[in-house]
UniProtKB/TrEMBL annotation, chains A, B:
The record marks R331 as: Important for enzyme activity. Its EC number is 2.5.1.26. Belongs to the FAD-binding oxidoreductase/transferase type 4 family. GO terms for biological process: lipid biosynthetic process. Keywords: FAD, Flavoprotein, Oxidoreductase, Transferase. The keyword Oxidoreductase applies. It comes from Frigoribacterium faeni. Signal peptide: none annotated. FAD binds at residues 216-222, 229-232, 280-286. This is Alkyldihydroxyacetonephosphate synthase. The active site is at Y486 (proton donor/acceptor). GO terms for molecular function: alkylglycerone-phosphate synthase activity; FAD binding; oxidoreductase activity. The keyword Metal-binding does not apply. Its cofactor is FAD.
């Protein structure tokens, strides 16, 4: 057991937040000046005209009308006594930053100045003892507590219910951001829940370890948030989903801490660990996670491959999952997403260049249809021998499924740029576009059907709302019995962007359910996925879950209304 | 999707049960006539004199005083209407068979004719619809329902509470024993919960598939029982614990079926799947499991190895877990269990012979202490190339940890005999001995401490009760962050065998808790492990679990009192 000593500030001022109106930090924005194919591509697929250069959104915080805080002086005083005056915020900016996550609905609403209900105050506890006092105060004083990590949620887990009349406390976990210690013998790290991805990896990497959890939100999401929403990451094929990574847990409950031992497996009744995972704040406040960590791999490589069709790409991923190979990433884009990737590349380098160079030969020699072509990334991590052997096995499988390797260049670029897409969405919104994602998991036997019915459902939805829409997807994780499919959809919205979005989102989610897939593979439920819960886990399942919440939180203090609605 | 058509009888008469007084089927018994080292060894370690030949227990069912059934005619009539007269049993033999599992406490009590409370009747539903009717009747009529699989439980999950005044129905799932279909594309099999291990494997093997789940109880336990108790098997290193294998579930709840889709992973709130797993009947009746299945491996081999000490053996298992190798079995016995294995071998063949032949060379060349020597079995499954490569990697690690390979012979024998140990226990009991097992899991960093403190605790307990006792153990499963340790203890009991057992069992379980290990890795909680639950998962955890049970089963109809007590 080694104490990881990090000189980290735990001041309130050091807690990082994203922009109130969009993804990421101020000053970083997408532009396409070096990607000449991008604007024409977007114009073609959704009819949106993109401006060049950096775009000024014109959004001003002062234009917002923020509902006044209803927190009474007694509540504020009590919280100040617990965390100190500097750790209780009642100013409008802090409250607004803690109102929404970053789904397209959230961004549409915040950009339109829609703030039905805003947390009445934000508290920044410095440690678990303070969290306990806040939780106990909340129960005693009938407050509502909404735990807040990085604020990256995209299913409505963070927003207060509009009709809530009690005082709402947003409990920002940002000061609890330390790797407390690493059991190097066991590969187990005790980590505070409020640490954001890059900060945690930095602390772990400094000791030669990695968590191996890299969701799309990585740069702005927290370990506690990952656990609370059942997150999955880009390298979960190797490292497991957060449910696999999470061994021990500490959760502040009214009156005390629910503590789960960090043992590799246990047969102690229904899994409390698996009740906390995915609980989205409804069972208490996660303060600490003992997570499985791995030594940094000696070698790490992402190779790109091309397949003549989506079916070939899927068949290859399935064959890889069935084989003895164990790559760290298995990803294949459908033809739409492949075309999108090429359009966002810079000429002379980038994903497309090498492929563009190869194309004439490819098409002639193989007779491929360039519009059906699918780009795949397979990741390899481990000792050089393991990496070489896995690449060889995968290479054979790719070839057997009519695919071809296109080297490490595109993979390197993918690796560097993989967290940038949300900035693109903000830029797209600046020009009247709406884009968001839906993801699911299904058995191998159903994936083709899921994919084609999601396309059909989205296109029907686009027709219904009278827009030129676009949908694209990829397989993002493989399991023994199936895979995760991840879809991105976009359209130029009209005046009622939120209602239009709802039509498209609804159509896609219902297609998941109708094909036997799940309503969500790793984004959680929040408010947005609730309408499909009883179809997914059966009404009896929702009732059991509701019973769990009601018995654990009879006062509906902890993020009420999320996951199950009641 | 292929329907698996099997000509299986679903008659009540075809439902298999174990002996009322011991393990397994009538007519099969342990004897040691071909194992000359065995009786002297047992005499030495626990002072028990074993007779030769087959032993007649002298136990007669007619000597038992079985409390009369309190089931009223209305209840019996209602059940007969649901399942038919031949599927409702009220005879004493059937009721007694459904009273206990097969823990040492169970066997001590049944051999002593202690029957505080016996199920009032046994029902054998033919399908899920009948289970639903029984469940609904039980809720409406305030009955108690205890689901029954193979009856192999050893933690008291099956026995009725002595003070129960309501009519108790043992719900025997034995007629629901079919593999319903196999999704060959996805490696998912839809299987009825009441099928016993060998029957299920036979149905799967016939189609080229295996579940890969082989607990010690395999020959007499059911899929539903495995799920209900969070089982783990001998090859779980490769195939996963039952929690990994279980994808979809159907659970009959009052008023309807809780159905969980068989998707590879989902982010739909707290995991209902993981609440049902380990629920020991308290959340309803599991009728169907969609399980991950694997194609039968091309090659399958178990190799034996020897290590000069327990610490070397553990270090090797840890290094294997950290390596790129993925064996199907990782097992190493401590020196006591190694000595026991040698003593139970037949001369001329068996585990010991090859090793005995090697010993003089070994000891001279390597300077090993023969009393400290530890026997290990590592299993390999997959394609020939994978098996060869894994064996090579493991071979290197074994050597680096001062161990040596001793070939496939002992492994083959281990493989054939691995389910026979419980028969030995019955024979041992015939001679005044008591023996049982305790198992746990802990991080790698704690295993040595767990092991030595368990030994110390057991030996102190033996002293306290004034017996010559024996304890032995092995590592039975490896994970990234730790392993399962499995202990067997034995002593010659006095008049109060149950009280003596409690002292020893208590000491061992408390040593688990005190060293940071868990109260159980794969045996469940039942009644026997309850005393340590709040130390293991914290009082707050037990309260949340109790809340789940209370909300899901306010009438305490479903196996009340198990897992949490209330």
């Amino acid at each position: 057991m080694t104490d990881v000593q990090q000189q980290k500030s735990d001041s309130v001022a050091a807690v990082k937040h994203m922009k109130w109106w969009g993804w990421g930090v101020e000053g970083v924005a997408f532009h396409h000046d070096d990607k000449p194919a991008f604007a024409p591509f977007v114009k073609k697929i959704v009819g949106v005209e993109l401006s060049s250069g950096q775009h000024d959104t014109g959004l001003k915080f002062d234009d917002l009308t923020v509902p006044a805080s209803i927190a009474g002086p007694e509540v504020v005083d009590s919280l100040v006594q617990i965390v100190g005056a500097d750790a209780v915020a009642t100013d409008d900016h802090d409250r607004v930053v803690h109102t929404y996550g970053k789904s397209i609905r959230d961004l549409i609403r915040i950009r339109a100045g829609i703030l039905a209900r805003v947390p009445d105050l934000v508290v920044y506890p410095a440690d678990e003892a303070q969290v306990q006092q806040i939780v106990d105060l909340a129960v005693a004083s009938d407050l509502v507590v909404i735990p807040f990590g990085g604020g990256s949620n995209i299913v409505g887990s963070l927003e207060p219910l509009p009709a809530e009349t009690r005082t709402i406390v947003s409990l920002d976990m940002g000061r609890l951001d330390r790797v407390l210690d690493i059991d190097e013998d066991s590969g187990l790290a005790r980590i505070q829940a409020g640490g954001q991805g890059p900060d945690l990896e930095e602390q772990l990497n400094a000791r030669g370890w990695t968590l191996g959890h890299f969701p799309d939100s990585f740069t702005h999401s927290t370990l506690g948030g990952w656990v609370a929403t059942r997150s999955s990451g880009m390298q979960s094929d190797k490292y497991g989903d957060i449910a696999d990574i999470t061994k021990g847990l500490r959760v502040v409950r009214p009156g005390g801490v629910l503590a789960i031992r960090a043992v590799p497996s246990a047969s102690t009744g229904p899994s409390l660990r698996e009740m906390i995972i995915g609980s989205e704040g409804r069972l208490g406040v996660i303060t600490e996670v003992t997570a499985q960590v791995h030594r940094l791999p000696e070698k790490r490589e992402i190779l790109a491959y091309l397949f003549p069709s989506w079916h070939d790409g899927l068949a290859a991923m399935q064959a890889i999952a069935e084989s003895d190979a164990s790559p760290s990433v298995t990803r294949v884009s459908d033809s739409h997403e492949t075309a999108f990737s090429f359009a966002t590349s810079k000429p002379g380098k980038g994903i497309s260049q090498k492929i563009t160079d190869l194309l004439p030969t490819l098409l002639k020699a193989k007779g491929w249809d360039v519009d059906a072509m699918c780009l795949s990334f397979i990741g390899y991590e481990g000792g050089p021998e393991h990496v070489a052997r896995t690449q060889k096995t995968v290479g054979r499988i790719v070839k057997a499924n009519r695919g071809m390797a296109v080297g490490t260049g595109p993979g390197k670029l993918y690796d560097q740029k993989k967290f940038d897409t949300p900035y693109l969405r903000d830029f797209f919104m600046d020009h009247g576009g709406a884009a968001d994602v839906s993801e699911t998991a299904a058995p191998w036997s159903k994936l083709r059907d899921v994919s084609s019915r999601v396309y059909a459902a989205a296109n029907q939805a686009f027709d219904r709302i009278g827009v030129q829409g676009w949908i694209m997807g990829h397989l993002s994780h493989s399991y023994h019995s199936g895979a995760c499919l991840y879809f991105t959809f976009a359209f130029e919205h009209g005046d009622d962007a939120e209602a239009q979005y709802d039509v498209v989102k609804h159509a896609i989610q219902q297609a998941f359910i109708d094909t036997g897939a799940t309503v969500s593979h790793h984004h959680g439920v929040g408010l947005e996925h609730q309408p499909w819960m009883s179809q997914d886990v059966s009404p009896e399942g929702v009732a059991v879950m509701q019973g769990l919440f009601d018995s654990a939180d009879p006062g509906r203090v902890f993020n009420p209304g999320k996951v199950t609605g009641a």
